[in-house]
């Protein structure tokens, strides 16, 4: 995300707003220190994006998933070839 100083933000406000309309955001800094993060209204709020369960019903976990490859793993850790 690009950082612009206050003077640049005032000078190029129209260009920055156009960037927001296309989905991009920017950070405004004062004396090099970030003071505001500008994002489009359609952007999800920080920490609000829902990720849990986003692939529900699309994957099938076998009943024996915790035992898969057990013999091979045992031989590798047991030092057998």
Structure description:
This protein has 81 residues and is of the alpha+beta class. It has a domain at 1-40: 3-Layer(aba) Sandwich (YefM-like fold), CATH 3.40.1620. The chain contains three helices and three strands; from the N terminus they run E-H-H-E-E-H. The protein has a three-stranded mixed β-sheet. Strand 2 and strand 3 form a beta hairpin. It is elongated. The N and C termini lie far apart (51 Å). The model has no long low-confidence stretch (mean pLDDT 85).
Please supply descriptive tags for the structure shown above:
single chain; 81 residues; alpha+beta; YefM-like fold; 3 helices; elongated
- CATH level 1 class label of the domain at 1-40: Alpha Beta
Rounded radius of gyration (Å): 25 Å
Strand order of the largest sheet: 1-2-3
Q: What's the CATH architecture of the domain at 1-40?
A: 3-Layer(aba) Sandwich
Structural class computed from helices and strand pairing: alpha+beta
Order of helices and strands: EHHEEH
Total count of strands? 3
Percent in helix: 25-40%
Relevant CATH superfamily of the domain at 1-40? YefM-like domain
- Apparent shape: elongated
What is the tally of helical segments?
3
Mean pLDDT comes to 85
């Amino acid at each position: 995300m690009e950082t612009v100083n206050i003077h640049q933000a005032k000078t190029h406000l129209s260009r920055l707003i156009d960037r927001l309309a296309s989905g991009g955001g920017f950070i405004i800094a004062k004396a090099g220190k970030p003071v505001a993060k500008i994002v489009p209204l359609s952007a999800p709020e920080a920490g609000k994006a829902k990720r849990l369960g986003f692939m529900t019903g699309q994957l099938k976990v076998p009943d024996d998933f915790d035992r898969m490859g057990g013999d091979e793993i045992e031989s590798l850790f047991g030092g057998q070839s």
